[in-house]
Each structure stands twice: as structure tokens, then as C-alpha cells.
Amino acid sequence: MNNIRNDHEVARDLATEAGQQLLKLRAKHGFDEPEVLRTLGDRTSHEFLFSALGRLRPSDPVLSEEGADNEARLESQRVWIIDPLDGTREFSESGRTDWAVHVALWENGELTAGAVALPAQGSTLSTVDPPWLPEERPAGQRLRITASRTRSPEFVQRMSTQLGAEVVPMGSAGAKICAVLLGIADIYVHAGGQYEWDSAAPVAVAREAGLHASRIDGSRLTYNGEEPWLPDILVCRPELSGMLLASIRDVADRDGAGPHSGE
């Protein structure tokens, strides 16, 4: 069996199964004790993914939000980057569907496979069969930018004002990038910093589907760093990237402050 193809399937199947376990936890425990549910969700999904990857890919280190960092990953050619429960707050709130499970493979400097399960939406987006990206946006449609629902996105608000865009509040970073993949939004931009596991899997799928994904200065997103931290990110339709990168520069210059201000 082709190993690269098999890695795609492993990412998809594990993300989907972890998501199903999280749905069962929600059904069993309800939402009366959100902190308990969040803790159970993080632990259950991490333990399942970590154990499954240890069985299926025993030679590959795992970088997980919920696990201790394994320094062996810095010398490895293959590292799995996982977020067992992205959007923990939303997971613990009844009726919310904007939470996700992320499973990605970094290999020799690149993201080579990835999957984002959206369990409450009944879907998993993956590099096995990435979403089809329409060739063009509907003419005259207002731009839509996904933004955090819990933190005041001042930079995003300034940018949306300049572009005349609508801001669509949403939880998980994975759900936001998937919203761009599915045509619910056009742009995901974040300048407040995030960990690698917040974006590795959705970026892998976004790139495979043909979306633009970069730092907000247009430089390359890099993963499996010594400090697993990314200061900023832009994901959008490829034909919008030049305009958006210029808008980001203009907003920063006009305000006399970097785009991280207020995030």
C-alpha cells in the first residue's frame, strides 16, 4: 500500500473516530457542568489519538496540545501534530457545532497529510478527498471574514472596515478554516498568535484544496518548530491573497501599530 496515501487515511479515520467519542461524551454527560465536560473531552480524545498513533505509527513522535512535548520530534523526519479538541469552550455549550478534532502529519519540513473532523456537523474534511473549491466567488458578494467569538478582534475589525467585509464570529480555528473551505466565509486571518496544533491539520487540508495559506506578511507557515508557536496566519481563496496582504500592510501602517495590537 502506498504509504503517503495510507497516512491520509490514518489522519481521516482517527480524527473521525475521536470526534465520535466526543459526541458520545456530550450525550452522556450533558452540559450542566461545562468544566467537567471540557476536561473529559480533552483527556478522552488525547488518550485515544495518542494510543492509536502509537500503535499505527510507533516510530513517529506526536506533538499534542494535551501531551508533554517530546524533544525527539526535533530530530525526526515525521511528526504527527494533533489537537484532540479544538474549540473546547464550544464543545461544552449545548447546540454549538464550531468545534473540531485535528490530526496532521508533518514530514521533512512540510505538512503532508491532515484531517479536521467537525463531529457536530457530521463531516470530516481531509487530504484524502479535499473539498472542491468553486472556481469563482459569486459576483458582488460581500467578503466574509471569520473571527473569534470570545476575544475582541480589533485588527480584524479594522481590516473588515477597510474592505467593507462582514465579520462572522466562530469558535475553533479549525472550524474557521473549514468555513473558508466550504464557502461559508472567504477569509480567515488571525494575528494574536496560536499554537501549531491549532492550524496544522486545517492548513494541510486547505492547501490540498487549493487555498492560500501563509503568515500575514505573505511568508511561509512553518511547523514542528522548537517553540510550537505561530504569531499569525492568513487563509483565503488564492485570488484574494494579494489584495488581502496589501490590506493588512495598509491597516498596520495607517494605525501606526503592528497587526498584533488588540488581539
Automatic annotation (TrEMBL):
Cofactor(s) listed in the protein's UniProt record: Mg(2+)
Query: Catalyses which reaction?
Result: adenosine 3',5'-bisphosphate + H2O = AMP + phosphate
The organism encoding this protein is: Haloactinospora alba
Q: Does the keyword Metal-binding apply?
A: yes
Please list the residues that bind Mg(2+).
65, 83, 85-86, 198
Its BP terms in the Gene Ontology are: 3'-phosphoadenosine 5'-phosphosulfate metabolic process; sulfate assimilation
What protein name applies here?
3'(2'),5-bisphosphonucleoside 3'(2')-phosphohydrolase
Family matches, as InterPro entries: CysQ/Inositol_MonoPase, Inositol_monoP_metal-BS, Inositol_monophosphatase-like
Top-down, what is the taxonomic lineage of the species of origin?
Bacteria, Bacillati, Actinomycetota, Actinomycetes, Streptosporangiales
Protein keywords: Magnesium, Metal-binding
**Residue ranges of coiled coil:** none
